[in-house]
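Give me the fold.
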Amino acid sequence: MRKRAAEEERAERSSSDQSQWLASVSTDDSMQFSSETPIALAPFTSPPTALSAHIHAHLELGVVLAGEQKRLFADFTSQALPGDVWMIPMWEPHGWEIPCEHCERVVIQFLPHLLGGEMIDGVSWLSGFAVHPRFRPQLRDEQERKRLLGIARELWSEAHDQRPGWIAVTRAYLLLMLTLLYREWPRLEGPSSVSGTRASGLARVMPVVSALQQEPGRPIAIAEAANLCRLSRRQFYRVFSQTMGVGFQEFTLRARLGHVESLLTTTDLPLETIAAEAGFVDGAHLHRQFVKRYGCAPGAFRKRVQGRG
């Protein structure tokens, strides 16, 4: 096992430090997905980069090829070196910064139905995305890390060339990387939620997930969600949390706040109008939820984004 400058560790940041990066989160809606193209693949080469953060309505898996990258979450931070991966579920606020002179990484972003009900040695492919960032899988064996880096470099070439069949190739490589990551992970980490996450339930909850993707600002009650998925309320609660790794209320709140961020960034609508469009009772209700999650007021967030622009 190679020594690393910093292993994954819980961030011991003060609430003000946490607010500093959470307040910079912006909605990433640059990727255009469809049933025909449920995946995006991109290579990145970056010089030193200040803190950047966002939230998006798709899943993400990335690999560092060269240099290093700092990854930040609400209560956790880690250092990503060559051969390290990061995994982001839908609508999870996250951030990063590049502290070195040169960083290369390849990123796959995709919709959940791309992998559907795939299982990897009895483990749901969703499992690594569903647990707390601290417990998400990493490869520790040097030979396996080299193998994963080889796959990531193949993806780098695919991203540049975009030849016919690149979606099928990327999907196959994505599954191979997840297989490498999951081989030892449940035994090494053992978070109790790993065995509970089930991709087999994805088809059952996709009707409501798709509805949220199409209208992220529309509040959906449990009764409506259960009806869309043709499940009882009790079944829906259980299947959704087991499949997505988070409760339905939390999932929808993240989606609505993501929609708020998009409207704050791209429009001049007043807060009361945005609150109504995102399903909040009023501007005060939205203000409380926004400050609680991102550490700054919606107005301050808008000014910060406009200042960067």
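The radius of gyration is 19 Å.
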